[in-house]
């Protein structure tokens, strides 16, 4: 079987809800990262055979195949097709896996995986809420209701269930949140994100400025300020501080075959080593990365000790904490440049975003293997293992 290689990976700096990226149409965010991929790499972009774009809220400005619209808004040739996919929070990680599978199957040589999500302009849950409000239907069909009676699938509920199952305290969650900000601060100040962030020109009271620093980082974060944030439910442990931040952004990963690399004289940065996706309990929902990782490691013939870095999406603090506890991971290798609690979680754009951050961190630290996983709606999880070249 042919192998799939990562040539480049980029992302926008995260924008807070109503923040610096709020005035940028999501299609134009996607176009910006597509242009960056083409500008940074010496190949004919007309040779891209497909663009696969993850996007969760495919409504309003993110409808009508948002990935294709971003191609048309970019400087890429309009001959490049695109498809938009939804695997909830794992949408653009699945885009990477679909792109890699296209290359590994030998049916494609160059595929661009990407993600787009403006949570300011197309708010989370807005597509479902619109239809329910207008009495046009509910995502729960009669048969789904029969299978899960009275259950409205909730990630917040799943997060609290994880806390109880694995015995965490609010202090445990808040400490991880503080660490996320501290790591993100250090990475920003040390220039660790410089190679992955695509600057975006935005309007401001001072005129046009370049947005290139993740807006969600709290540079003054302390345990006291994090613990001062109110609980989201009475008697619970989850707060806005120990949960992922609402975020606007886009990201992209260029994937090629060995043949394409030779034809264009390009040097790959990493090899796709394993692609795994699994599903389990849709009620606790957020636990599946634990079991998906076990399967991925077994199929790859690796142990967790072979992995130099891991990105476990910080949808909620108990997710990476439960993952570490179950897998036996080293906390020092986890989300080394911060995670979604500090950098933001732009839903469908997070998969390719995490890959850009993980790849750069792996190169900067001289590691060999890195593993990326995230919890997803419906009790699903993707795992992608890469090998630095």
TrEMBL record:
One Gene Ontology term of the molecular function aspect: acetyl-CoA C-acyltransferase activity
Entry keyword set: Acyltransferase, Transferase
Keyword Transferase: yes
Domain of life: Bacteria
InterPro entries assigned to the protein according to its UniProt record, in alphabetical order: Thiolase (IPR002155), Thiolase-like (IPR016039), Thiolase_C (IPR020617), Thiolase_CS (IPR020613), Thiolase_N (IPR020616)
Residue ranges of domain Thiolase N-terminal in the record: 5-258
Protein name: Acetyl-CoA acetyltransferase
């Amino acid at each position: 079987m042919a192998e799939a290689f990562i040539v480049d990976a980029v992302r926008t700096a995260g924008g807070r809800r109503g923040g610096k990226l709020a005035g940028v149409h999501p299609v134009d965010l996607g176009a910006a990262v597509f242009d960056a991929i083409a500008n940074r790499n010496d190949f004919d972009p007309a040779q891209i055979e497909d663009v696969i774009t993850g996007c969760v809220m495919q409504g309003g400005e993110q409808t009508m195949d948002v990935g294709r619209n971003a191609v048309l808004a970019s400087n890429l040739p309009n001959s490049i097709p695109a498809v938009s996919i939804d695997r909830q929070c794992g949408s653009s990680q699945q885009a990477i896996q679909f792109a890699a599978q296209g290359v590994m199957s030998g049916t494609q040589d160059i595929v661009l995986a990407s993600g787009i999500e403006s949570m300011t302009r197309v708010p989370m849950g807005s597509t479902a809420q619109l239809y329910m409000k207008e009495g046009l239907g509910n995502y729960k069909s009669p048969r789904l209701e029969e299978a899960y009676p009275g259950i409205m699938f909730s990630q917040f509920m799943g997060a609290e269930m994880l806390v109880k199952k694995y015995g965490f305290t609010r202090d445990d969650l808040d400490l991880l949140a503080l660490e996320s900000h501290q790591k993100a601060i250090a990475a920003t100040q040390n220039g660790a994100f410089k190679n992955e962030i695509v600057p975006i020109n935005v309007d401001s009271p001072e005129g046009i400025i370049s947005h290139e620093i993740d807006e969600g980082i709290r540079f003054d974060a302390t345990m006291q300020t994090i613990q001062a944030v109110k609980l989201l439910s009475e008697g619970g442990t989850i707060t806005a501080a120990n949960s992922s931040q609402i975020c606007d952004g886009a990201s992209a990963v260029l994937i090629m075959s060995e043949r394409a690399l030779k034809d264009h004289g390009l040097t790959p940065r990493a090899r796709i080593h394993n692609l795994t996706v699994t599903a389990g309990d849709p009620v606790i929902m957020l636990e599946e990365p634990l079991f998906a990782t076990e399967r991925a490691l077994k199929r790859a013939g690796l142990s967790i000790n072979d992995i130099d870095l891991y990105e476990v999406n910080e949808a909620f603090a108990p997710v990476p904490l439960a993952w570490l506890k179950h897998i036996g991971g080293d906390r020092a290798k986890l989300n080394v440049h911060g995670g979604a609690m500090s950098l933001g979680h732009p839903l469908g754009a997070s998969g390719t975003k995490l890959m850009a951050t993980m790849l750069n961190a792996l190169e900067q630290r001289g590691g060999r293997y890195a593993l990326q996983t995230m919890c997803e709606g419906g009790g699903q999880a993707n795992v992608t293992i890469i090998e630095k070249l």
